[in-house]
Amino acid sequence: MAIKVLVVDDDKLVRRGLISFLPWQAFNMEVVGEASNGEKALEFLECNPVDLLLTDLSMPVMSGIELLRNARKRYPHLHMAVLTLHQDFEYIQEALRLGAIDYIAKVQMEEEQYEEILGRIAARIKEDRNQRSVSLNPDQIIAENKQGYVLLSMAHETELNWPQEVNLPQALMMEAERNSWVWFVKEEQQEQVVEVLMAKAQTEPESVLLVLTDIAGCGWKDLQRWLREYREQVLFYDYHPDHNIRTVSILDEPNIPAGTNELELEKVKVDRLFSRWFQNDRVFDGLIQEMKSLRLPEKKLVGFLYSLVIEWNRLFAGTQFTKIQMIPSLHSWYQVELWIRKIRKSIHGSVGPSSHSQEILDCITKAVSMIQEELSTQLTAAELAQRLNLSRGYFSQCFKDIIGKTFNEYSRFIRIEKAREYLLNTNHTIVWIAEQTGYADEKYFSRIFRESTGTLPSEYRQTHRLN
């Protein structure tokens, strides 16, 4: 079987010279492709079987060193050699550390030396082939196996090097995508493979072992696509660290849920903001399941959670309710649920047990929302109490108990905070800002603002914009 060669160099004349000048046929070698940089070389490797990668070290877009590093992870059985100049000695050392088996200098070489180097490379590849008879064609590998084993990490930001730590010399491993590797083994070796990979999955944080069945007849690109969709649409929501070993048929297409409309999102958002979810266990568990059932794509889920955090902190700024911090990282729904439960516990700690009924809790949080939404109207406690069907005295007492401020204290605080926002982020006049925050008299607004902040509105705008 001929040794298939890919030549990579950014200089087209050098590539053509090497392809035409080197005695490939004398050593049963065949140049099957060429590329001008590392990225194009990786694209070629994804679609074509290659036995020997011969690459320059200094190239634009992706250097030869980066190409060697990527190829080593994705195609551990690919042989690699480097093209170099004499002054690239440090790069040659790095290339050898990354697995290059030899190097060819571009200048000052005689034909006999080329033959010596190619012969040395060919002998090394032949020796490895004798030890390993498995083809490097991904589609052929899949066709010869009934199942595969995928070890993956749910984390995005951590670069893991599991293949180097997993000692399975008789198994063929390929990288499906970042932090995701597929092993293919003969039937008689499966027990050993499962044992080793299960142990790895149990010790590595946020890792999952998938046993893929019914893979025969599936192409490598189809397998990569299926794995990516399964990870994003199924595993993201089903992952749990106590159940991180799963057997899945490749014939089961990931169930893509219908798009969630804005009304559904708004309903969950309103329920999430108001008090019932952190006071009532049954309501809380129901809300968690309702949010999960939406099965939002990861990016949309992140945006949705951000909007909840911003809205909560806006509504309850200046109250005894705790300020919510956005989830620091998000790899699975399991993390989201832990984060929400932590928030609930924190809110419980900030307000303590309530002696008020659930109905009163809901009324007061609705009052907070009304104040926020109707800032340009100077609402009074009597008006809100009437709209909520409560007596003024009872409403005022409940408001202070639950929010931690009197109605007037909270109302003034929230109006001044909104005024600060307008002063810093708009060029509207002080008169306009006063009207938008419920003050018909500009002078009265300025006096209240100075009492609250220590400066007049115009001074606040000038000082803080300079800072």
TrEMBL record:
Which organism was this protein described from?
Paenibacillus herberti
Q: What is this protein called?
A: DNA-binding response regulator
Q: Which Pfam families match?
A: HTH_18 (PF12833), Response_reg (PF00072)
Q: Which UniProt keywords apply?
A: DNA-binding, Phosphoprotein, Transcription, Transcription regulation
The UniProt record lists the HTH araC/xylS-type domain at 365-463
One example of the protein's molecular function in GO is: DNA-binding transcription factor activity
List residues, modification 4-aspartylphosphate. 56
Keyword Transcription regulation belongs to the record: yes
A Gene Ontology biological process annotation?
phosphorelay signal transduction system
Which residue range or ranges hold the Response regulatory domain?
4-121
